[in-house]
């Protein structure tokens, strides 16, 4: 496949570590990088102040998370896009990878130790259902 590398982020330090590895892989492969963050609910609030109205939703803060990580990863010659996807993290990352025709998904291994091994983790779910290669970065347990 020749599509982008998709990396899931949630604002955590471990996800940022996985994103750095995804950037390095994208540079090495000459592939674009797509940073995605998931939101499970779509709570929307309308705020009125005088004649001004603001609409604030979970998607807004999720996009802001992905945008910040994308900005942190900026590298000359690397095309980076970002976005938010609705759904549980693994489902959202997989759907985004399918939508973009991704060549690879990169996730961290958080949740794959201890009881998380039995209850499931984002990395485990992605690895079992991804439409492309999956790279699981050792972000915890080092």
Task: Give your account of this protein's structure.
By secondary structure, the chain is α/β, with parallel strands linked by helices. The protein has a single domain (8-137), classed as 3-Layer(aba) Sandwich (Rossmann fold), CATH 3.40.50. It is 40% helix and 28% strand. Strand 1 (5-8), helix 1 and strand 2 (33-39) form a beta-alpha-beta unit. Helix 3 (89-100) runs parallel beside helix 5 (122-129). This is Universal stress protein. Belongs to the universal stress protein A family. Residues 1-138 form the UspA domain. Pfam families: Usp.
Described by the principal axes of the CA atoms, the overall outline is: globular
**Strand-residue proportion:** 25-35%
Terminal Cα separation, in Å? 31 Å
What is the structural class? alpha/beta
Q: What is the CATH superfamily classification?
A: HUPs
Which H/E pattern describes the elements? EHEEEHEHEHHE
CATH class: Alpha Beta
Give me the Rg, rounded.
16 Å
Extended strand count:
7
Outline the biggest β-sheet.
5 strands, parallel
Helix content percent band: 40-55%
